[in-house]
């Protein structure tokens, strides 16, 4: 009898789906903000699944190449995607050919969190306050410049939102990445830029840059004295680099359920939260339908921004 009960208990316990290592595609280069977010989550998720979760960087076309590869992968839970504010936010409006459908081609697992942008100026040669900056921009439209990591990036679109909210006209200077833009800001070659909090923080702490406002719904834990744009009367200026996990559409419901349960545990672990916060991430754990709704709203919001600003599609 006891043997039958034990056997019954074993049969009732469904085996884990992961019987071999899982690939987690990061559609950007190693060492960047998204890569830094992915690695602690992947490590902890592997422990939960009982298999290694291997981060594989597949950069190109602002994340589209990696996203398209996962969209076309077998829907078996062994190839997953770190989708972002680019691949599942602005890119659908910036590219005429994505290579994937950001909604129809994926199962929505979990949003992890976001690193908001902050408006910064040179601490010595830049404007002394946001009011000064706005006044100067209105006095001489198109003269003050802001750098970005390139046309259509989060740093650029944050500037577009700010121009509209502050009723100013600025000169956008796109760079091939945020680092050269930041270098020019430190050299007083541009007036300002939006940068991610995590990247700007060392220069803010060193006194090289001055922060005016954070483009988020709440103040950032690393910059508690810096107001949000909403506090300054510009609630529409919200722009961040967010990341979450997706699986190819058609992944079995049982696999999706197991992944979501594992991710829910992982994102509550102090070590994972500490690692994400160390990279400036404000935690935003959303799963399933709530994550789906968040992504749909992001695509709609950035689509409207791109159309109104007439930013050319690739």
CATH homologous superfamily designation of the largest domain: Bordetella uptake gene, domain 1
- What's the pLDDT, averaged over the residues? 93
CATH architecture of the largest domain: 3-Layer(aba) Sandwich
Beta-strand content bin = 15-25%
Sheet of most strands: 10 strands, mixed
CATH class identity of the largest domain:
Alpha Beta
Cα-atom Rg, whole angstroms? 21 Å
Q: Identify the overall geometry.
A: globular
How many separate helices? 11
Helix content: 40-55%
The parts where pLDDT drops under 50 for at least 5 residues are: 1-12
The tally of structural domains comes to 2
Content-based structural category: alpha/beta
Walk me through the structure.
The chain is of the alpha/beta class. The protein folds into two domains: 23-115 and 241-309, D-Maltodextrin-Binding Protein, domain 2 (3-Layer(aba) Sandwich); 116-232, D-Maltodextrin-Binding Protein, domain 2, CATH 3.40.190.10. It is built from eleven helices and ten strands. It has helices at 2-12, 33-49, 64-71, 86-94, 130-139, 154-166, 178-186, 197-205, 253-266, 270-278, 288-309, and strands at residues 22-26, 53-57, 79-84, 106-122, 145-148, 171-174, 192-196, 209-214, 240-248, 282-287. Strands 1, 2, 3, 4, 5, 6, 7, 8, 9 and 10 form a ten-stranded mixed β-sheet that branches. Helix 4 packs parallel to helix 11. It is globular, with a radius of gyration of 21 Å. The relative contact order is 0.19.
């Amino acid at each position: 009898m006891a043997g039958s009960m034990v056997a019954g208990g074993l049969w009732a316990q469904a085996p884990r789906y992961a019987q071999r290592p899982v690939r987690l595609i990061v559609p950007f280069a190693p060492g960047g903000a998204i890569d830094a977010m992915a690695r602690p989550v992947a490590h902890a998720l592997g422990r939960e699944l009982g298999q290694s979760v291997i981060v594989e960087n597949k950069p190109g076309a602002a994340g589209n190449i990696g996203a398209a590869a996962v969209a076309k992968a077998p829907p078996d839970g062994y190839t997953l995607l770190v989708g972002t504010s680019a691949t599942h936010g602005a890119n659908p409006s910036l590219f005429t050919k994505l290579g994937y459908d950001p909604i129809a081609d994926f199962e929505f697992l979990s949003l992890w969190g976001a690193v908001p942008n902050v408006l910064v100026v040179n601490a010595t040669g830049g404007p002394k306050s946001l009011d000064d900056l706005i006044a100067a921009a209105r006095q001489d439209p198109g003269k003050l410049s802001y750098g970005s990591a390139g046309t259509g990036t989060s740093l650029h679109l944050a500037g577009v939102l700010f121009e509209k909210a502050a009723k100013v006209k600025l000169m956008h200077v796109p760079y091939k990445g945020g680092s050269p833009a930041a270098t020019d800001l430190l050299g007083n070659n541009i007036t300002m830029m939006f940068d991610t909090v995590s990247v700007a923080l060392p220069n803010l702490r060193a006194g090289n840059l001055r922060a005016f406002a954070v483009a988020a719904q709440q103040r950032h834990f690393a910059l508690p004295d810096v107001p949000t744009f909403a506090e300054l009367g510009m609630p529409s200026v919200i722009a961040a680099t967010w990341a979450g996990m997706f699986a190819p559409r058609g992944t079995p419901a049982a696999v999706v359920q197991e992944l979501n349960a594992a991710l829910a545990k992982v994102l509550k672990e102090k070590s994972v939260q500490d690692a994400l916060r160390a990279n400036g991430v404000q935690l935003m754990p959303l799963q399933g339908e709530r994550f789906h709704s968040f992504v749909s709203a992001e695509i709609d919001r950035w689509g409207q921004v791109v159309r109104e600003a007439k930013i050319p599609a690739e």
